[in-house]
Amino acid sequence: MAAAASVVVAVGTATGMVSALDDGRGSDEARPEVTESPVLDIRPPAPSPSPSATKSASASAVPKKKPSPTPSPARTRTETGKQQPTTVSARLYRHPDSQVLDWVRANPGDPRRDVIASRIAGQPAAVWFAEYAPDTVTARVRTVTAGAAAQGRVPVVVAYTIPDRDCGGASQGGAPDLDAYDAWIDRFAAGLGSGEVVVILEPDSIAQSECLSGGQRADRFASLARAGRVLKAANPEARVYYDAGHSGWHPAAKQADLLRQAGAGSAGSSDGIFSNVSNFHRTADEIAYDRQVLAALGGPAGLGAVIDTSRNGNGAPADGEWCDPDGRKLGRTPTLDTGEARIDGYLWVKLPGESDGCKGAPGTFTPSYAYDLASS
Fold first, then answer.
1. How many whole angstroms separate alpha carbon 243 and alpha carbon 277?
2. Active site residues per annotation
3. What would the pLDDT profile of 87-127 be if each residue is shown by its tens digit?
4. Host H or E run for residue 156
5. What Rg value do the Cα atoms of the chain yield, rounded?
6. Fewest C-beta atoms under 10 Å: which of 73, 232, 289, 358?
7. Is there a contact between 5 and 86 (Cβ–Cβ < 8 Å)?
8. pTM for the full predicted model
9. Quick one: CA dihedral 215, 220, 223, 229, positive or negative?
10. Which residues pair with 197 in a beta bridge?
11. Is the four-CA dihedral 215, 275, 368, 108 of positive or negative sign?
C-alpha cells in the first residue's frame, strides 16, 4: 500500500476546540523540517523480490500499483452511515505547522477552505521525522514535544529513517547504515522531553522486511529493539509502538513472530503495535487483526495497539488500489479513548490530503483530494 505519509499538525484550546486559522507559533519556534512527506509502500510487495533488485529500484514520481490481497466485500462498507464528527481530541496535540495549515492560511477565499479547515486542518495528527539530519533532529523533536507539554497535550511523532526503508521504493532513503541509525535514534530520543508522547517507530520496517536477507533482517530487528529501549529510557512516559502492517497483509501469527524478533513483545522496549498506517482498511478489521497479533505476540498484558484511521472511512478499495483511490473518506477522528479493549488509540498518522503520488506529487498536499476525502 503505497501512501504518502505526512508531517501533520494541530493545536487546541483548553476546551478541546481548535481554530485552523490560529497560527499559534512563536517567533523562535523551529519548523520540523519534513515538509515533503514520504510515500509508504506497506502493502504486500511484489512476489519474492530479491534484495539486490529492490535496492536498485529508483524512486518514482508516480508510484506504480502493486498487487495486494483483495479485501472481502465487508471491507468496503462505510464505517458509519454518516459523516464523522468534527470533535477534536482534548488530549492529542496539533502541531501548528503542516502543509494543510499552510494551504488554509494561504487560501482564505477558496470555496473548499472551510471544509478542509474544520475537518482536516483542525485535527491532531502525527509529525514525521523522515530526514536523516542527526545534527538537528533533537531540536526538531523537542519543538514538537515542548509545544505539546505547554498545552498539556500528547504529541504523536513518527521515526522514519531506518536504512533501506521501503525496500528501494518511492520512499527509499533513511540513515546510511544501522550504526548511523542507532546514533540518530539516540538524538531523536534526546528530544522527547519528559511528558507523555506516542512514538510510531518505523512504518514498513517489520511487515516489509522480507526484502532483506536473513542476516540483514536480524540486524535491523536488533536495531529496532534497541531503539525501543533507548526511547523509553530517555522518557519513561513515551509510548512506543511497532509496525504490524495491516489486516490485509501477513497472517497474525506470522506478523507476531516478526514483531517478537524486533523486541515488540518486551515491556522494556514496547507498548505495543500500530497498524494501517497510510492504508484504508476498516477500523473493525484492524481491531480484530491487532488483537490477534497481540495474542500471538504474547508479552505483558498491557501491550496495546494504535490504528491509523485517517482515510479508512469507506474501507479499502475492492480492487486493492492503494494510490489515492477514489471513493475514500475520512475515518474516525483521532482519540486516545477508544473504549475498545487493547486498542490504545485511533490516530491520524497519515495526513488526509497528502497525495500518494497519483492525484498530486508524492507527499504534497493536494486540496482537491483533501476536499474529496472530507466531503464524502
1. 9
2. 166, 204, 356
3. 666 699 999 999 999 999 999 999 999 999 999 999 999 99
4. strand 156-159
5. 19
6. 73
7. no
8. 0.81
9. negative
10. 238
11. negative
